[in-house]
Design goal:
Layout lengths: L25 E3 L40 E3 L4 E3 L2 E3 L1 E6 L7 H13 L4 E5 L2 H4 L14 H11 L2 E5 L29 H20 L8 E5 L10 H13 L6 E5 L18 E6 L30 E6 L10 H7 L2 H15 L3 E8 L31 H15 L7 E3 L3 E2 L4 E7 L6 E7 L7 E10 L2 E10 L3 E10 L2 E6 L2 E7 L6 E7 L4 E7 L4 E7 L2 E6 L2 E7 L3 E8 L5 E7 H4 L2 E4 L2 E4 L3 E8 L2 E7 L4 E5 L5 E4 L2 E3 L1 E3 L5 E5 L14 E4 L14 E3 L28 E8 L4 E9 L5 E6 L2 E7 L16 E5 L10 E8 L20 E9 L9 E5 L16 H5 L12 E2 L7 E12 L4 E2 L2 E5 L6 E7 L2 E7 L6 E4 L7 E12 L8 E5 L3 E2 L3
Helix pairs in contact: 1-3, 4-5, 7-8
The protein binds beta-D-galactopyranose (GAL).
Beta-D-galactopyranose (GAL) binds next to loops.
């Protein structure tokens, strides 16, 4: 995250190498079926002079024809048709419920996205060298089949390094033990990453668009700019090609031009070099501050490839613990309008990845601890609990526009209409084949929230018009002129175009335009002769002169105008406010209005079948020539409207009851702290060397990773023979930010300390990380008697390797120094050590459990552990205790009721690992920012019994606050 840090790192070698290789070219022609429909929906289809847009609803894996992908400086093309790629980032690994992948991907699609950008997480699949798991929640083949079925293009991003604020930046923790610098062509690392690519590439390859799948591009590495190694970058691409990857290869350059190389030219160059833009940065405590990191205009890195905004900020990590709602504000609709639209017109980019569309959860030990906690909500348009927000509405307004308006996929800079008020800025692009213009209108000072009006002198392809415009508050508009809109000709509009469609059998067009509430709008359409204008709703003035029909209105509610005659097929024009625009949905060619979400709509004959979500009973209006409507499998009574649409009312959900959490039983654990505990099967810790660039303070090496314990807690037991004059136990531990460790001597609790960190590569290595001095109570040790020191160290996750320096991600976890010091002489006592951590769960994966006694013996699992469990949630002594309960849910099958576990205010410093049916769904830390923890359906049995097990790690005498199951929403959904 700390982008600034790298100023000095950036004088990295620009590799001198052969000339550019990324010329516009045919990437593949595996089998070309130019007339076959591609698997994508909502993709623009402009090539030369597009007049129509098609939206195939879906295609089925295995039956789709393969496609041919090419590109030039304007855009990607699929089977000769230009594609404006508008994708949102989704991390399957942050949603451990494949059933919910469909839910989220359908929501992403319904927002107007025609693609998703997917990281693939090496460490998530590989607990040990040579061992890979692609089943269950790791079944990425299933994920890619789903994207095919839903008609979403995929940008596949398998790293090997992905960053993403996930443990190790996506590296498996075992890589910490592999000699040689990561993200270089060092032989040790090369063997390791080739192993990963050897597993993931064939899966991606078989899902390429060129083989009838969904993958349209392949991203090599991630923001690879510091300590670069061109041979490595080249080899990643060679591995991909050798595995049959034939789609264009891309790269996402970090942040700004100071990060070089761009991988646009020279050895290691990719075909489509892209840029990541995070103009708002990550200070969610100040959501009104704009553009900390600049204008956010995606730079064109290659003259031969489309400009690509590979990661454009669509949310933020909560770096300073303001809460994700503040991050959503920081990157809210006003920011999205001004920055995304400015970028669209200024850069002419036609490939976008918005990071994140849905953030998800750092369940298990997925988090990289410096930047994130359990929730990775990200302030995204879709919340962690899968709810749609105001940002979603804005994405939909922009997404439907960019994926409807085909000429946008090929534009050059054009003369902008002159603005009578210089404080209102204009900028334009035009399609060289169709002449269609796209004009950006915003405040010259993009930070101001002023209300300004101006008159534009707009030279459209159909003549010059003086038109008034108004920019109210932080806003920007992209206005269109000279556009063949279905069977109509849109000369210009000062309203923004949401979408348009040719309803059903093609006998009329329906278009939705929108603008700021209370602001006037003008729309001009061309006709051969005077058409008939019928205002069905609202107040709209019209005049006709010299072939131009001019409509004047103020954006208020939803006005409806029917235009017939004039030498064209009829047009239903819907003119609304932004809020009204957000009520529309588009599925294929079907335009609908109402409900909380339309997942799909299929028209067959006179039957319209809709899959929709409703939080309450509500109207649903379909702009299609249908006579019957089915919503979520139930026939809905309908009536035709004067707009020629069909209006029905769909039922909402039933009220649901969620049980209170009672019947808790509690048991203390940590037998490891007792001197007599049998640790004979533990691993002896006696290594004297380590691969880590950070060396231990004392020997033996006690780094958990060096003994194969990579995630969660580790226990140490150190034995020594006491002299009786021991004064203190002195420890150093690295836990990752926010971690703690606890110490017992001969079973007596000595206390806890905060785990430390080594510093980043640009800071000096910390000589005293996570120090803890624990005075030894007198009388606890006796001369000549054996003593046992027990230390429990938490591992909060592994650092990333953002600056490719190896020091960060190879930073150890566990004890880095341990001594028992005697009084007087200050000498240290020799200690022999044993270590014990957790093992990878065969189903839930390597990050699920650590080495707590309860985790090692299955107290987190649904099956009932034996032993002496006391009823209730009593006050807890420092150390580790577990509380368990069961609850039963009986939620209706056709309702979606996301639940969270809410922690009330307790007492004492404590942290709680939350296990739901054996799955570690997060860690609550008292005093931390997160109190609500998502319980994802799938892991949560919504119709059946559930087991909740809490491992409470208390630093003081502790009581837990009230624990409640909290419904976040209640929607009727397709069953
Ligand atoms: C980018 C990186 C992503 C993610 C993002 C911030 O630099 O490529 O993986 O870390 O920043 O959330």
């Amino acid at each position: 995250m700390r982008r600034i840090l790298v100023a000095f790192l950036l004088a990295v070698t620009m590799v001198s190498a052969p000339p550019a290789t990324s010329s516009a070219s045919v990437i593949s022609a595996a089998s070309t079926t130019p007339s076959g429909s591609p698997p994508a929906t909502g993709s623009p289809t402009a090539s030369g002079s597009p007049t129509s847009t098609t939206f195939p609803t879906s295609s089925t894996s295995g039956t789709s024809p393969s496609s041919r992908i090419t590109y030039d400086r304007y855009s990607l093309t699929v089977d000769g048709r230009r594609v404006l790629l508008w994708s949102g980032e989704f991390h399957y690994f942050r949603l451990p419920s494949p059933e919910l992948w469909r839910d989220v991907l359908e929501k992403i699609r319904a927002a107007g996205f025609n693609g998703v950008s997917l990281y693939f997480h090496w460490g998530y699949h590989s607990p040990r060298p040579g061992v890979y798991d692609f089943t269950g929640v790791r079944d990425v083949d299933r994920l890619l089949r789903l994207t095919e079925e839903l008609g979403l293009y995929v940008v596949a991003r398998p790293g090997p390094y992905i960053n993403a604020e996930t443990t190790g930046g996506g590296f498996p923790a075992w890589l910490k033990n592999v000699p040689g610098r990561a993200r270089s062509s060092d032989p040790g690392y090369t063997r390791a990453y080739r192993e990963w690519l050897g597993r993931i590439n064939p899966i991606i390859a078989r899902h390429q668009l060129t083989r009838g799948g969904s993958v349209i591009a392949y991203n090599a590495e991630n923001e690879y700019a510091a300590n670069t190694d061109a041979a490595y970058m080249e080899d990643i691409q060679r591995q991909a090609r050798d595995a049959g990857i034939d789609v264009p290869i891309t790269h996402n350059q970090c942040c700004d031009a100071s990060w070089t190389p761009t991988w646009a030219t020279g050895q290691g160059a990719v075909q489509i070099p892209g840029v990541d833009d995070y103009p708002q940065s990550f200070e969610c405590r100040e959501p009104d501050t704009w553009g900390t990191w600049g204008e956010g205009v995606t730079e064109r890195l290659s003259q031969n490839a489309p400009a690509y905004g590979a990661e454009y900020q669509a949310g933020a990590i909560d770096l300073n613990k303001a809460g994700y709602e503040k991050c959503r504000e920081l990157t809210g609709p006003a920011f999205m309008k001004v920055y995304y639209k400015s970028n669209l017109i200024t850069s002419g980019a036609t490939m976008f990845g918005y990071y994140m569309a849905f953030g998800g959860t750092n369940w298990g030990r997925l988090a990289q601890p410096n930047d994130v906690y359990t929730s990775y909500d990200y302030g995204a348009p879709i919340t962690e609990n899968r709810q749609l927000t105001g940002k979603y509405d804005e994405f939909k307004r922009q997404g439907l526009f960019v994926t409807t308006t085909a000429p946008l996929a090929k534009t050059d800079v054009a003369a902008a209409p002159a603005s009578s008020d210089p404080a209102v800025h204009t900028e334009a692009r035009a399609n060289p084949d169709t002449g269609t213009q796209f004009v950006l209108v915003r405040h010259a000072d993009r930070r101001t929230d002023a209300d300004r009006s101006s008159t534009l002198t707009w030279k459209t392809p159909d003549g010059t018009y003086p038109v008034p415009v108004q920019v109210k508050g932080r806003d920007a508009k992209v206005l269109v002129a000279g556009y063949d809109m279905g069977g109509q000709r849109l000369t210009l509009s000062t309203s923004e175009l949401l979408t348009h469609t040719t309803a059903g059998d093609g006998d009329r067009d329906v278009a939705v335009l929108y603008g700021t509430e209370g602001v006037p709008g003008t729309t001009v359409l061309r006709y051969a002769s005077q058409p008939t204008v019928k205002v069905l709703d609202g107040t709209v003035r019209s005049s006709y002169e010299n072939g131009a029909l001019t409509l004047g209105y103020t954006h208020e509610g939803l006005a409806r105008v029917l235009v017939t005659g004039g030498g064209r097929r009829p047009l239903l024009l819907l003119l609304g406010t932004e809020k009204e625009a957000a009520k529309f949905w588009r599925s294929g060619d079907v335009l609908l209005r109402g409900t909380d979400l339309v997942r799909s709509a299929v028209l067959k004959g006179g039957d319209l079948t809709v899959r929709a979500d409703l939080s309450k009973a509500g109207d649903i209006e379909a702009f299609v020539p249908a006579s019957r409507l089915t919503v979520n499998g139930r026939a809905v009574p309908v009536r035709p409207t004067p707009s020629g649409s069909l209006l029905g009312r769909a039922p909402g959900p039933e009220a649901v009851r969620v049980p209170s959490l009672t019947g808790w039983r509690t048991r203390a654990e940590a037998p490891e702290a007792r001197p007599g505990y049998d640790d004979s099967r533990w691993t002896v810790a006696r290594k004297t060397t380590t691969v880590s660039p950070i060396k231990p303070k004392t020997l033996p090496v006690l780094y958990a990773d060096d003994y194969g314990y990579h995630h969660g807690h580790v226990w140490y037991r150190g034995r020594f023979t006491a002299t009786g004059s021991e004064a203190s136990v002195d420890l150093n531990a690295i836990t990752g930010k926010g971690g703690i460790y606890q110490v017992w001597l001969n079973g007596r609790y000595l206390g806890s300390a905060a785990g430390g960190e080594q510093k980043d590569a640009d800071s000096p290595v910390n000589p005293d990380p996570g120090p803890g001095r624990f005075p030894i109570p007198s009388g606890l040790l006796a001369e000549g008697r054996s003593a046992v020191l027990s230390v429990l160290v938490e591992n909060m996750g592994h650092n990333d390797d953002w600056t490719a320096d190896d020091v960060r991600h190879k930073q150890p976890r566990g004890l880095v120094g341990a001594s028992v010091t005697t009084t007087g002489s200050g000498t240290t006592v020799p200690i022999t050590w044993k270590i014990q951590g957790g093992a990878a769960d065969p189903v839930r994966g390597p990050f699920n459990t650590g080495g707590l006694h309860g985790e090692r013996t299955g107290w987190h699992l649904p099956s009932s552990p034996g032993g002496d469990w006391r009823p209730g949630l009593p006050a807890l002594a420092p150390g580790v205790s577990w509380s368990r309960t069961r609850f039963r849910l009986d939620l209706p099958r056709d309702q979606d009721v996301p639940l969270t576990l809410r922690f009330g205010q307790g007492t004492g410093r404590h942290r709680v690992l939350i296990y739901l049916n054996g799955w570690n769904v997060g860690e609550y830390v008292s005093g931390g920012v997160q109190r609500d923890f998502t319980l994802p359906a799938g892991v949560l049995r919504t119709r059946g019994d559930n087991t909740l097990a809490l491992a409470v790690i208390a630093e003081d005498e502790t009581t837990l606050g009230a624990l409640t199951l909290t419904p976040v929403a209640n929607h009727r959904v397709p069953g």
